[in-house]
Design brief:
This protein has 16 helices and 47 strands. By secondary structure, the protein is α/β, with parallel strands linked by helices. The chain has a 26-stranded parallel sheet that branches. β46 and β47 form a beta hairpin. It is elongated. It holds the Pfam family DUF4954.
Length: about 725
């Protein structure tokens, strides 16, 4: 926001500080922010009162109106004052934001017990009650802007004198509330996920609740806060809402019981027709055009648009939901859902996900009771018009083809395409689909999610690479499953030997899996031999890639010494958990839970410090995990480093070629070419594949990767 003919004030941050409370027996509505300098205010002078009255202002008691030096009484017109009001400096200038210009001052409003910062512009606010307002704030045409005595600002607080039943819970992952959590300002997807799990551990669940209750005072009478440079215009009702600096609200219908976190570097905006109740909105969010949101948390830099409905849900950072309905869902960062006819309910989705048009995932629509659930690893992509039956569970990077799936599905095979087998009438899973047919999308999404991470406060280390500790574990499990399924399909033969025999690459053996779909239909695994080889190659490639990354983090250390030291300290392959987009070993998570139960951890701040500590350890742990993964399939892999590196380079070349090959299909498809007069017009519309920036960057990275690995091989 720019002030005309004035130097801008310094862009101060906004903290939701705890007010100072009065002694028992005093008015419950005098709990004002303790950082206000009361000495900066003075009573009105008689001449100032005369000027105010001449400008059609009224006061219950002019002695209760306090002002700073620099207050200009001529800039207050047609206002009514009740209770204690403090007014800052008012200068003869105006504020401007986008196409809105307002003169500094208070005009045509009813003001009850408020504090105003310097050079505010308030006009036509029918009721402005119990708010502390920062500097250079603009408020125009608001029907009601008030804070009540029991304001909770979106947190699951119970105030003195209130019953426990009024506490706000978010019912995540299950419509019946079996996984409900208490929302609080600062809550992360990882916190919510931890709380939704281990529901049988009553002590741990009680500790989570106790930790949350300790975050807030149960006393009544907090004043609402509106941070510096906030702009509010043409809005109906705002009640019990805290706002950070640089918040922008225009044309909203109703905002109630919210915390809106915002700052100069990441402004939060709420637009036309929105009705938002009982929520916490983090910095950099955008909410526009008829959104309905109730009992929710919106993490940083996420968006709700075009009539979206978000209820009893937590949406992770860098996500967008528009046009559709999401209920009882816990969604990790980087989720996209844009289509009016998609529906997601009772789900835990671990991020980097995309819901296509017509996808309907709802427990009370395809189960006997409204208590079914869906859980999906990161990279979950249900395709067009997919209908899944709860309870279903999917490994990472599962793509589901269009269709109705009559039974529950538990697919532990990562990087799969799942579809109905029209030829045999069963379920079909193409193993290793992404690496064989759509490497462009897989690689581009990993790059895109990282590039679009707009968080100004990257307080959690989000993993976007498709090869990471969680997928390494799933790949190892997938290798074992493929060996078992091939063995079963051979009638008890040696599945491992069959899969390792190059002669079987074109063998038409029909491979069937068990325990995938809860129906009498058979599940056929396609491309088992090819996927088996790719999974092995990926483990070689991933280990080499992490060795290179570790060497670059320690440029003065010998690459060979780093490798040997890590191998010497290597342990068995670890199980990892995706906590809100950050990967952490399950063992240390369990230790942290024990510390919570024993009382060593008593605050959520300590849990967040645990995340930060694990983020610092992650790069080295990821390297160790990559080496361990390769050891699981070849205990002697590191005895012949040149062979290991050569295989990793060959895999890198295969992946890079796959990126261009999969994208080139769009240019070679005669049906797509039929849309254009010739190939030149196709290139003009969708771009020349040879000039595709992402493909060219991938090629350059592959060349650099090869050169650096060759260097490591020579040093070793």
């Amino acid at each position: 926001m720019n002030r005309i003919d004035k130097k801008p004030l310094s862009k101060l941050g906004f903290d939701f500080v705890t007010p100072a409370f009065l002694e028992e027996g005093q008015s419950e509505f005098d709990h004002r922010n303790s950082n206000i300098d009361l000495g900066a205010y003075r009573p009105l002078a008689p001449r100032e009162i005369s000027i105010l009255e001449a400008n059609l202002n009224e006061a219950e008691n002019w002695k209760d109106v306090w002002v700073k030096e620099g207050f200009n009484p001529y800039l207050v017109k047609n206002c009514r004052f009740f209770g204690i009001n403090r007014i800052g400096i008012l200068e003869s200038c105006y504020l401007e934001f986008k196409n809105l210009r307002m003169p500094v001052g208070l005009y045509n409003s009813t003001l009850i017990s408020c504090d105003f910062g310097d050079n505010v512009a308030i006009d036509r606010v029918n009721l402005l009650s119990h708010y502390q307002i920062g500097n250079e704030v603009m408020i125009l045409q608001v029907n009601e802007l008030a804070t009540t005595a029991t304001a909770k600002f979106g947190n699951g607080i119970v105030k003195k004198g209130e019953e426990e039943r009024i506490r706000i819970w978010m019912e995540l992952g299950n419509e019946n509330g079996g996984r409900k959590v208490i929302p609080f300002v600062g809550m992360k997807p990882a916190d919510a996920f931890l709380w939704t799990q281990d529901r049988d551990d009553t002590l741990l669940q009680a500790k989570y609740k106790e930790m949350t209750i300790q975050e807030f005072s149960s006393k009544r009478g907090f004043y609402g806060q509106i941070g510096d440079r906030t702009v509010i215009k043409n809005t109906g009702i705002i009640k019990d809402v805290n706002m950070g600096t640089d918040t922008y609200i225009k044309g909203a219908n109703k905002l109630k019981n919210l915390t809106i976190i915002s700052n100069a570097e990441a402004s939060t905006q709420i637009g036309e027709g929105c009705e938002i109740v009982n929520g916490i909105i983090h910095e950099g969010c955008r909410i526009f055009y008829g959104v309905k949101a109730v009992r929710f948390i919106l993490a940083a830099h996420s968006q709700l648009k075009y009539g979206a409905r978000l209820i009893n849900s937590f949406l992770g950072s860098n996500s967008t939901i528009s046009c559709c309905e999401v209920l009882n869902a816990l969604i990790f960062p980087a989720h996209e859902q844009h289509h009016n006819n998609s529906f997601l309910c009772a789900a835990i989705v671990k991020g980097q996900s995309n819901m296509a048009a017509g996808a309907t995932l709802g427990s009370n629509h395809n189960s006997r009771g409204a208590d079914g659930e869906l859980q999906a690893g990161r990279g979950f992509w249900p395709g067009l018009s997919v209908a899944l039956k709860h309870n279903s569970k999917f490994a990472s990077f599962n793509l589901i083809s269009k269709g109705n799936y009559p039974g529950e599905i538990h697919n532990p095979l990562p990087f799969s395409l799942i579809g109905n087998d029209d030829s045999e009438g069963g379920l079909l899973i193409i193993a290793g689909y992404w690496f064989q047919y759509n490497m462009y999308a897989l690689a581009r999404n990993a790059w895109k999610f990282a590039a679009r991470d707009q968080r100004t406060d990257k307080d959690m280390l989000l993993e976007f690479d498709f090869l990471a500790p969680d997928t390494v574990s799933e790949i190892l499990q997938g290798i074992n499953l493929l060996e078992k399924w091939v063995s079963d399909s051979l009638g008890g033969g040696d599945g491992k030997a069959w899969l390792n025999d190059p002669a079987n690459a074109s063998n038409p053996l029909a491979v069937y899996a068990t325990g995938i779909e809860n129906t009498k239909r058979r599940t056929r695994i396609a491309k088992a031999h090819k996927a088996y080889q790719i999974f092995h190659d990926l483990l070689y490639y991933h280990a080499a890639k992490e060795w290179l990354a570790t060497s670059e983090r320690h440029p003065t250390a010998s690459p060979s010494a780093l490798l040997q030291a890590t191998l010497k300290n290597a342990t068995a392959i670890q199980v990892w958990e995706n906590l809100g987009g950050q990967l952490i070993p399950s063992g240390v998570i369990n230790e942290m839970k024990e510390d919570i139960k024993s009382g060593q951890i008593t605050r959520w701040k300590q849990v967040h410090e645990f995340y930060e500590k694990q983020a610092a350890l992650y790069p080295e742990q990821k390297f160790e995990n990559a080496l361990n993964g390769l050891l699981q399939i070849n205990p002697n892999a590191f005895e012949n480093i040149p062979a290991w590196i050569d295989r990793a380079i060959a895999t890198a070349d295969f992946l890079t070629a796959g990126i261009e090959r999969s994208r080139s299909k769009d240019y070679e498809d005669p049906f797509r070419l039929a849309m254009f007069g010739n190939a030149a017009e196709l290139d003009a519309v969708i771009g020349d594949v040879k000039e595709n920036e992402f493909i060219q960057e991938a090629k350059m990275r592959a060349i650099s990767f090869r050169e650096k690995l060759e260097g490591l091989k020579n040093k070793a």
